[in-house]
Amino acid sequence: MVFPYFSNPTVPLSCRLMSNASGIQEESLIPWKRSISSGIAGSDSRGRNLDFMVIGAPKSGTTSLHKYLAAHPALYLLPEKEVPYFTNPDYLALGWDWYVDKFFSEAPTDRLWGKTTPQYMSLIETPARIWGQMPKVKLIALVRNPVDCAYSWYKMMLRRKQEQRPFEQMLDGLMQSGRPGDGNDRPSLFIGEHGRMLEQYFKTFPARQLLVLFSEDLKRDPGAVLKRLLAFLEVDETFTPPNLGRCYHAGGTRQRIPVNEETLAQHPCFRLALKLLPHRSRKAIERRFLFWFMIWNIRPDSSDQQMPGKSRERLVQFYRDDVRLLKQLLNQPVPWPEFADA
After folding, report:
1. What is the rounded distance in angstroms from the CA atom of residue 36 to the CA atom of residue 49?
2. Does residue 103 belong to any structural domain of this protein?
3. Is the N-terminal amide bond of 57 cis, ω within 30° of 0?
4. What's CA 137's distance to the chain center, in Å?
5. The pTM is what?
6. How many domains are contained in the chain?
7. Per the domain annotation, does 308 fall within a domain?
8. CA–CA separation, 199 and 216 (whole Å)
9. Neighbouring C-alpha atoms within 13 Å toward the C-beta of 142
């Protein structure tokens, strides 16, 4: 069963703030080997493109991967993590120079610049947009068993009070109709269609600029996965971050306190506290704090809160064709036993 991609995924507040590549020369794929001066980015870095991006997938462990990479002395990642440019119409209208000036003004110029934006594996038009601005960028995709992705997204919707139905009932409403239902069940399913989304990236970028990793491997052997990623970025792959193996942003259906980041951001006391900060850094601190609060405010579910077995079987069938496509794109098996015969 194949549905069109959702065009307006529901994302947290902290996340809301086609050419032919065959002619690219090998040496041009390594933009960081150009001569760049040390120091902090300023007007001389206006319009500098990113060297790498973690493009997703949503609900696949990208927060943990982001934290590991951010500790590397040769890399600079935007601290706020999910501040999309290519999926934000307002930012696109303002232009890439504006985005660099606003979000990378403190970035050391002698490091590789990168960012993590899981939404970039949500919209089918995103690969062409990225290619149009930065055709030499290296792209990293971290993908997870699509069945688990779908359930994790559903739990986020429950926590945010944007879904009330039991999971099986939500699936009934969608699958019996044979088309996407109304509301937040759409991204719950589409979020796991890694094959169809990555197919667009492989059509747009040379394969040597793409690295696809598995969340299950990152959890099982984070050191080996990180070493492979650092080798892909051509930086010191022997570096081991002190936080390696720590899990950030564990999913859950409940909040520690019944306040979401949107409500907190508008609270008079919070707005007053922000006014006490230097004006230049106020917005950046606000985004970082709200993202931290969103993660902290998730109360992890107990181990017995698992997806019903019947629902799991249905989703395995739903994603079977897409996983087969993913295997063909990567020319390798996936670490998901349920899809061994896909």
Report:
1. 13
2. yes
3. yes
4. 16
5. 0.76
6. 1
7. no
8. 21
9. 26
